[in-house]
Amino acid sequence: MEIIVPLLFLVLIGVMIWTTVKQNRARKTVNEYQNSLTPGQRVTTGSGMHGVIRRVDERTVDLEIAPEVITTFERRGIVPLPEQLQAMSKNKARPAQQNAEASSAEADAPEEPHREELGAEDDNKNS
After folding, report:
1. pTM score of the predicted model
2. Phi, psi of 8 (to 5 degrees)
3. What are the domain boundaries of the chain?
4. pLDDT tens for each residue of 35-92
5. What is the CA radius of gyration of the chain?
6. Is the domain defined by 3-86 classed in CATH 3.40.50.1240?
7. Vertex 105, ends 55 and 66: CA angle to 5°?
8. Euclidean distance between CA atoms 54 and 41, whole angstroms
9. d(CA 45, CA 52)
10. What's the 3-state SS for 11-78?
11. What are φ and ψ of residue 45, in 5° steps?
């Protein structure tokens, strides 16, 4: 009976340490994502706005949220979606396999249309 209280105390300490480690790991993953942002990448802001990165600075990111509409966000305002977080954590576990899959996916992916092509498509829709 005397051992139950110290045992519960140790379990509580263990849960607190585990939670802290998990939060630090998630924070590190988000920071890595934010530091790897590049122009042309599709992203989501913390408020749910979607866009394509057009310019990246030390602290800010310019997003094109509609044709010719550029907004500036703090880098820390760009967050990975839950699916991206899972992919990033799996990527750490199997980097060689993920890099091979990414290379083949890039080769198969269609090119993103240029701004001029987007404008031409909009003109066709309006006529």
Report:
1. 0.58
2. -65, -40
3. 3-86
4. 989 999 999 998 889 999 999 999 999 999 999 999 999 999 998 887 777 777 777 6
5. 22
6. no
7. 35
8. 8
9. 11
10. HHHHHHHHHHHHHHHHHHHHHHHHHCCCCCCEEEECCCCEEEEEEECCCEEEEEEECCEEEEEEHHHE
11. -85, 170
